[in-house]
From TrEMBL:
This is Probable endolytic peptidoglycan transglycosylase RlpA. Residues 1-26 form the signal peptide. NCBIfam families: rlpA (TIGR00413). Its EC number is 4.2.2.-. It comes from Pontibacter cellulosilyticus.
């Protein structure tokens, strides 16, 4: 009986240690589900938004907002095949697709032939030097309201459009009146911000691209 208790106790300690030492995906970023596409030979060797050369045989991907260097697990919801990819580009800017994977990744996920697939994207690791409060970025000012309620409503619409989007609600005074401004996204350059602004425009949510 004593030996059985020792076994149960040791088993509990092992599971407790595993649970503590391995953070869940929810501790890093929300999970996204949606359509994935891939890009191959046509873009092979071209510069990505991060400055790297795209290699169709590398385990990389493009995402609209995740920081460059982020590692994500992408799972094909049709067959449960999964891969780990590193974000090094921006996109896809087509419809409601959430990620663009390399050609080799599409083959491993088994949707290469179809062109698109339904996937789940989970963040495994953010880059070590990532600081969301770093200055020197482009953002989109999507609205300015005297009504806090209206500003909050727009913020919710933006977050519903893209759960990974960094949405900021700021308050300042303009001509003696309190104004609530909404900023969406943190982009490395103006081109990325303007491309994302075009996506917002399709939803009636576009704004003004500004350097922060």
């Amino acid at each position: 009986m004593i030996n059985n208790r020792k076994c149960y106790f040791l088993t509990f300690i092992i599971f407790l240690f595993i649970g503590i030492s391995q953070p869940t995906f929810a501790q890093t970023q929300d999970v996204q589900t949606g359509q994935a596409s891939w890009y191959g030979s046509k873009y092979h060797g071209r510069k990505t938004s991060s400055g790297e050369r795209y290699n169709k045989n590398d385990m990389t991907a493009a995402h609209k907002t995740l920081p460059f260097g982020t590692k994500v697990k992408v799972t094909n919801l049709e067959n449960e095949e999964s891969v780990v990819l590193r974000i090094n580009d921006r996109g896809p800017f087509v419809g409601d697709r959430i990620i663009d994977v390399s050609e080799v990744a599409a083959k491993k996920l088994a949707f290469h032939g179809q062109g698109i697939g339904n996937v789940k994207v989970e963040v495994l690791e953010l880059p070590g030097d990532y600081d969301p409060k770093n200055a020197g970025f482009y953002t989109i000012q999507t609205g300015a309201y005297t009504s806090l309620k209206n500003a909050q409503a727009l913020s919710q619409k933006l977050k519903a459009f893209d759960k990974t989007l960094d949405v900021e609600l700021m308050e300042d005074n303009s001509r003696g009146k309190k104004v609530h401004r909404i900023r969406a996204g943190r982009f490395d350059n103006r081109k990325e911000a303007e491309a994302f602004n075009e996506l917002l425009k399709e939803e009636g949510l576009s704004g003004l691209v500004k350097e922060a």
